[in-house]
Amino acid sequence: MRRRWLINISIYISLLLLALCFLAPIVLMVVGSLKPDAKVLIEAGSLKAVLPDQLSLQNYSDVFTRVDFMRYLLNSLLISGSIVVVGLAVNSLAGYAFARMQWRGRDLMFALVLMIMIVPLEAIAVPLFYEVTLLGWRDTYIVQIVPFIANAFSICLFYTFFLGLPRELEEAARIDGAGVFRTFVSIIVPNAKPVFATVAILTFLMQWGAFLWPLMVTSGEAVRPLPLGIAAFYTLPPLQWGDIFAFGVMMVAPILILFLLFQRWFVRGVAATGIKG
Amino acid sequence: MAAVSYKNIGKSFDNGAPAVTDFNLDIKDGELMVLVGPSGCGKSTLLRILAGLETASQGEILIAGEVVNDKTAQQRNVAMVFQNYALYPHMTVRRNIEFPLKMMRLAKAEIKRRVDATAKLLELDMMLERKPKQLSGGQRQRVAMGRAMVREPAVFLMDEPLSNLDAKLRVQIRAEISALQRRMNTTTLYVTHDQVEAMTLGGRVAVINQGCLQQVADPQALYEQPANIFVAGFIGNPGMNVFKTELHSEHDQLTIRWGQQQLSLSLDVKRKEALQRYICKPIFAGLRPEAISCEDTQNVDATITVKVESIEALGHEYLLYFKSDVVAVDTDRFLSDGEITMRSIMVARLAGRVDAKAGEKIELGLMLKQLYFFDEGGMAVL
Amino acid sequence: MRSHPTAWLFAAPALFGLLAFVALPFVLAIGLAFTNLRLGSPLPTEFVGLEQFRRIFADDAFLRALLNNTSFALVVVPLQTGLALLLALLLNRRLAGMTWFRTLFFMPVVFPLSLVAVVWVLIFAPGANGMMNAMLEVVTFGIWMPRDFLHDPVLALPAIMLTSIWQGMGFQMVIILAGLQAIPHELYEAAAIDGASRWRQLVHVTLPQLRNTLIFVVLVTTILSFRLFDQVQIMTQGGPHNATTTAMYEAVQAAFSRQQVAKGSAITVVLFVIVLLIAWLQRRLLRQEREIV
Ligand SMILES: Nc1ncnc2c1ncn2[C@@H]1O[C@H](COP(=O)(O)OP(=O)(O)OP(=O)(O)O)[C@@H](O)[C@H]1O
Ligand SMILES: [Mg+2]
Fold first, then answer.
1. Where are the alpha helices (DSSP H) in A117-175?
2. Mean residue pLDDT across chain B
3. Which residue from A224, B54, C36, C54 lies 20 to 30 Å from A30 (Cα-Cα)?
4. Is the ipTM reported for this complex over the cut 0.90?
5. Calpha distance A188→C268 (Å, rounded)
6. Touching check for B74 and chain C: CB below 8 Å?
7. Is CATH 3.40.50.300 the right assignment for the domain spanning B4-225?
8. Ligand 1 atom nearest to B54, measured from its CA
9. Closest by CA position to C83, among listed A18, A6, A273
């Protein structure tokens, strides 16, 4: 009994220490965003980094005056949001067609999807850049949205889920007089909420942080998303750490709120990527 | 309301083996037709072909005299109750029942009227706002019935609708379905693998084996005049004992061989004539377990000695399993490959108490007037 | 079921997207890698065979990049997986507050890499005031001399590694935790009845059962190591003296700073071959597992 107790205590202590290490950068950022710019760097090495003596929201208002934060935020919301919403529709329909319908070339196409799953964006970034240049899409929203709507991994997640749904549900709907599309919308989708949530969250997580591609295909600020915003802000003289952190807090806030609200789904979504291994 | 016909229907799945071969069946308007057969014999496949969920490889399906092969499930106006009910889990009972009506684009008021009437009929009115998860097995079954009935379909299909219920509820709902069907007078196809269920529903019964129709008749006729060895063995509880024997004629008196014994038969003139062709030839004979007795009643016209294998007491009666000097046939497998599989154990259904133990030898009386004959191909000799 | 006319309609948008924006560029990558295409160049584009590949493999910066990617993988993969496994094992115990810890360790995963990189630039700030310097000084009782991590040829890459571990560990941890929870409880009960100690249960039940999960996690992290870009771009820009450059950074440099689309394509083709090899390895390892069972 006693030994057990000791073990538990040591588990807690090691977890707490690790948690401290993991939390430190986040605390540093949040606290830094509330301190006068000059003090952030100077106090970073002392306890004052986490226990400041004076707090203000000055940095937050500075962000809005120094850069067009709202523009970056709206761009990010528009881009990530469109990819998630349109992606859910497009990929779930494809997953359903693969899982439940018979059509010429299905198996061939599915093999293609499986192969495409291992192609990372990085491996095609340069020719894709060349392609969108030819299409004249540089510096637009389109170029940041359209190429990422169809997603092989999402299709596979949907496919696996739909395979597991009882076939009788669809057959009942067909006999009850529902067409294929109606069956999908009224019967399949309401019974597939978990997989929709998983795919939505994974997609959003990926897209909110997108950096390489927007960096390649955009040059003006007009259509750039938040990750490019913070990179630009970081190089914008004078280097004011308080402002940068305020930017960072506002950048991560939407997804952090989503995360804290739908924690279970985030964790499940990530775990789902492992299941496919 | 509509008559239904299967015309030369055949179905093979991608993996090759045919699930249904040359199937012909006519179901009259308003009739209750029961499809019965062992597991895997193709009953569900036949139902699904009619519903439009599978396409037939050969032949035609007619509903109300019209070929419907090329029509989709929606266009056929058939309703189906699935084995696991297939209720839509995310919809309340009301939404489940009204779904087919919504698909028909009926007016709101009409939908409500029909749903309420159906719910009342099935005593579901108290649980219209519940989800399927919150219902018992029997209640779910009734919702599935309701969803099928509410459309007033031309044909009503039920695929083992009771197999997920306990024995008592099954008997009760069986009676309800049968009564409901008579009241609504809708053409109904009812699939089951349970021959007792098939016999008690009250409609004609089609016996199927290995994708082939064996016999269509009302329950009494199936029991009294089985068309072949399979039906003889499948219908009855337990089924008929069939054994291999030879027919002989001595002084105008027909006899069959039972081991070393020759048992003489007293048959009417018509049957004698029918059997003349088989004299001195191998033939199959069948005797129902009910036609074997351990008491020497007046119906008994031969006595044999058998070795007791086991006894099952069912309370009001006893099943005595025994071995004897004849080669018994495994009726379930008889038609599958044309070869005979032997199983050597026969069964008697005895009303009185038997005081015998396994391994003992006892005497049993046979009521040979109730003997059936089948030719080498397994077909009944009348 | 007969062939649905609507099936193509269902699948078409997604298939079109995949073909146009993955398959086509992929084919294009292979094609371009054999040319001398340079945007805005007056020279006509022509087929140059393996010339681009010869060039990149003679390029010191690219070789250094491959070396960096490899050392990144060799350090980060075991460290991050080990830490994630340890944490998952600790969190898998049914003790109060474990979901809180899980949330906490997972939190960095939702942080965009660009933001993470910027925050860690400050942590690695030079001089005694820098957070990392100050902490090391405390831990070593004053022996540590403040360094400028991100401009130090030796320390810059480890600094990026640490940043990546911080951000990526939670992801692996959650996958491993899911793997742990999928292990049937009876196995532990059987082992306990057989008198196996906790440690032996870990070695003989947990780790073998977790094999597939671990293989997956290790190989995905390895692939991610070869895709490293965001942190490098923000924290060090490949420097100092190519100490932190990566294959992807080189590809982007070639294609954008120098408009050498063909060279960039050749690099991405090499990258793809590496990823393919790793994915193939994963298949092999997982298949082997199935044969054993
Ligand atoms: N989709 C399918 N693909 C391949 N073979 C199938 C398919 N569906 C059914 N079969 C085969 O067709 C035969 C008939 O199946 P069916 O489901 O009609 O049997 P059943 O009589 O309904 O049996 P049960 O009483 O067990 O429901 C079986 O041998 C089965 O294996
Ligand atoms: Mg069936």
1. 121-135, 142-145, 152-164, 167-175
2. 88
3. A224
4. no
5. 40
6. no
7. yes
8. 1
9. A18
